[in-house]
Amino acid sequence: MTTKPLEPIIKIRDLTKTFGTVSALSGISLDVDPSEVVCIIGPSGSGKSTLLRCIGFLEEYTSGEVQIEGRLLGYRRTASGLVRESEKNIDAVRRNVGMVFQHFNLWPHMTVLDNVTLGPRLTKRIPTGRARGQGRHALAKVGLESFADRYPSQLSGGQQQRVGIARALAMEPHVILFDEPTSALDPQLVGEVLDTMKQLASDGITMVVVTHEMGFAAQVADRVVFMDHGQIVEKGPPVSLFNAPESPRLREFLDTWRSRNMLFQNDASVTGEGEEGGARS
Amino acid sequence: MMQSLDLWVQYAPLMLRGLVTTAWICALATVVGIAVGLLMAWLGSIAFAPLRWAVRTYVEIMRGLPILILLFVLYYGGPSIGLRLSAESVGVFGLGLYSAAYFAEIFRSGFQSIPQGQIEAARMAGLTGTQIIRHIKLPQMLVLITPSMVNQTIILIKESAVLSIITVAELTKNTTQFVNETYAVIQPYVAAAVLYWLLVETVARLGRFVERRVKF
Predict the structure, then answer these.
(1) Residue B50's CB: how many other CB atoms inside 10 A?
(2) Do the Cβ atoms of A95 and A123 come closer than 8 Å?
(3) B75-118 per-position pLDDT tens digit
């Protein structure tokens, strides 16, 4: 990293999280600067999603600190240590954090537009008319303005996820957390979601993305973080991380990924099909 | 045939009075049942173990008890602990508290049917706990639980026939009077069956109407 002109949006210090006796995160420290895109990669069960859920305080962390724009999240500092914060104050700190989920988590009983406007209407007390205007604007950003009056079940997975992104955008958050946003999608639908995310990145939106899409990480991330066994093993710009991995664990992880990818490419060339055929196999 | 018609005309006022009594007692009992059931479901969802056990115990006792025993305890046992209720009140509260256990289970399953991910999305959108219940849980839950709630109400209406045993002048009690005074059997019970069916069918239709309204 070069100079830091601004206070980081997210500041994580010595974060740990244990589920019973199982340690999911052990001593994570990470800063995310404004307009930065940070991709978190790593094998399943490495704690990537848990880390993201701790940043959104969907998961209470065990020790350490998470600060959002300088404000401690989830706990209050008192003379005797950290005390659980009231829900109301947690909501206030969390207000500028948006989240996009692996399984979209749209509300099926509401139209697409209502999904996007519910948060702004209820929590920012924006009048319905104006909220709908902003909602349509957010839907336009993800290319789904004409789907405003449909229900989520009438949309494809990729479209649903783009609504999920629009829902997060409509809250005008200062950072958006993406929890494996393309993992639940059919291969041919991954592209549209990644394109939408690329667009957001170029708009300067701060993003933390847990992903298995190495291509996306290599192309879009300012920094890539590799996690394994609840720890950050290596972090840095994608070029150095992907081309010159230092730790053996990251090298192994990338080798596995590359050999699997190679398999796909071979398949495609053997069958003589194009990119689509390769993606399907 | 003529004779039957005469009997029915003669006893229509008595039977209709019985129907009205059955209807209002069941209506009030349903209100009690839903209110107490919702309270139970809410208390049972709070992360405080003694509360959950209390709710659990209540549900288990009520479900394990024949309604008649509960009514006897309230009506004949009540006065010995200073609880002097009219037969109608015992009917309303007995049926109400009894069905509350079943309504509580319906609400509980309704609350649990909303996927956790939707709740998390609502929390990340900044919604408060009550806003989540109001805007996310209840609207979806109502669609799912309306059929079971209608079903439970219908069961309650039919169970209310036992109130005749504790002297409530409801439809079954008045039917018995009809039988005793005329020595007729077929006509009184046919009349009772038709009237019960009308009441149940009304509730079922109301339920289907609500179902259409809450559907998304």
Answers:
(1) 7
(2) yes
(3) 988 888 888 888 899 999 999 999 999 999 999 899 889 999 99
* Mean pLDDT value of segment A232-244: 94
Instruction: Give the span between the Cα atoms of A236 and A250, in whole angstroms.
Output: 12
Contact B125 A107 (CB under 8 A): no
The answer to whether residue A122 neighbours chain B at the CB level (below 8 Å) is yes
pLDDT tens profile A167-221: 999 999 999 999 999 999 888 889 999 999 999 999 999 999 999 999 999 999 9
- B129 to chain A, any CB pair closer than 8 A? The answer is yes
Chain A residues whose CB is inside 8 A of the B131 CB are 122
Which of B121, B129, B216 lies at the smallest CB-CB distance from A109? B216
Cβ proximity of A166 and A160 under 8 Å:
no
Which chain B residues are Cβ-neighbours of A168 within 8 angstroms?
124
Please judge whether B118 and A95 are an interchain contact, meaning their C-beta atoms are less than 8 angstroms apart: no
> Model's pTM, two decimal places?
0.79
Task: Give the best residue of A118, A123, A178 to mutate against chain B (max B CB count within 10 A).
Answer: A118
Residues A60/A139, Cβ–Cβ less than 8 Å: no
- Assigned token pair, A45: 């069960």
Chain A partners within 8 Å of B118 (Cβ):
105-107
How far apart are alpha carbons A209 and A204 in whole angstroms? 14
Question: Which chain A residues contact residue B129 at CB under 8 A?
Answer: 87
Asked if residue A108 lies in contact with residue A151, where contact means CB atoms within 8 angstroms, the answer is yes
A-chain residue closest to B136, CA distance: A107
Q: What is the C-alpha to C-alpha distance for residues A54 and A31, in angstroms, rounded to an integer? A: 14
Contact state of B121 with A97 under an 8 Å Cβ cutoff: no
Q: What is the 3-state secondary structure (H, E, C) of chain A?
A: CCCCCCCCCEEEEEEEEEECCEEEEEEEEEEECCCCEEEEECCCCCCHHHHHHHHCCCCCCCEEEEEECCEECCEEEECCEEEECCHHHHHHHHCCEEEECCCCCCCCCCCHHHHHHHHHHHHCCCCHHHHHHHHHHHHHHCCCHHHCCCCHHHCCHHHHHHHHHHHHHHCCCCEEEEECCCCCCCHHHHHHHHHHHHHHHHCCCEEEEECCCHHHHHHHCCEEEEEECCEEEEEECHHHHHHCCCCHHHHHHHHHHHHHHHHHHHHHHHHCCCHHHHHHC
Q: Is A265 on the interface with B (CB under 8 A)?
A: no
Over residues A9-43, the pLDDT tens digits come to: 999 999 999 998 899 999 999 999 999 999 999 99
Report H helices in B46-128.
49-63, 67-72, 87-112, 116-124
Q: All domains of chain B, ordered by start, with CATH?
A: 2-214 (1.10.3720.10)
How far, in Å, CA of B60 to CA of B105, rounded? 11
